[in-house]
Write a structure and sequence with these properties.
five-stranded mixed beta sheet, mainly beta, six-stranded mixed beta sheet, 37% strand, 205 residues, 2 helices, elongated, Pectate Lyase C-like
């Protein structure tokens, strides 16, 4: 799919497919544009529910999209969640004890195009290269450098943390929060730990 969003009417069922490779901001803008251009008549004869699928979304993004559609129609909207562990599996932001969780050790550098995901804590004996992804339901501990995409607390736990020798990611996420490499704090030598403080991700030495 080359566009950000595809609206399809399948036997009076409206299916909205989000391009998983598109940025959420572009997707939201396209949806608003389509809804504004089409008007209320878009939903005439459409049976409930209207289904949105295709891209992993954070809890905030889901609620924002539901709000956008709610301004145009009172029909039920359902957002399908991909089975993969990731942002779209977030249902509710919850906090629990992250010191007790199952963990798995991975050996070697995660290279561009590779992805590691685990429903617990990930311990990586290597680096996370640019273009690679590490996703964990709990914490992420890297005995090397982070230069790729990392997401801890992937089911919404803001109490999780990410630790590494150095943190310089393409994107770093904890639960529904994220920062990019230009937001990183250079803490000098020693291990760096990213965690949520006062609703924002901070990186400390």
């Amino acid at each position: 799919m080359n566009t950000e969003v595809l609206f399809e009417n399948k036997e009076n069922k409206l299916l909205v497919t989000l391009n998983k490779n598109s940025d959420y901001v572009d997707i939201k803008s396209k949806i608003i544009s389509i809804l504004d251009a089409s008007g209320p008549s878009m939903f005439d004869g459409i049976e409930e529910p209207i289904t949105i699928k295709g891209k992993r979304l954070s809890d905030f993004e889901e609620q924002e999209l539901l709000g956008i559609f709610a301004k145009k129609t009172d029909k039920q909207i359902v957002i399908e969640k991909p089975k993969r562990l990731g942002v779209a599996t977030i249902n509710d932001i919850f906090n629990k004890d992250t010191t007790i969780s199952k963990s798995k050790v991975f050996t070697g550098t995660v290279r561009s195009g590779q992805r590691i995901e685990f429903e617990g804590t990930v311990i990586l004996l290597g680096d996370v290269n640019a273009g690679s992804e590490v996703v964990a339901e709990q914490n992420i501990v890297v005995l090397g450098d982070i230069r790729g995409y990392v997401h801890a607390g992937a089911k919404g736990n803001r109490g999780c943390f990410i630790a590494a020798k150095s943190i310089n990611p393409t994107q770093l996420r904890i639960a529904d929060l994220s920062i990019k490499s230009d937001n990183k704090v250079d803490c000098g030598n020693g291990y760096e730990i990213a965690k949520v403080t006062m609703g924002e991700i901070t990186i400390e030495a």
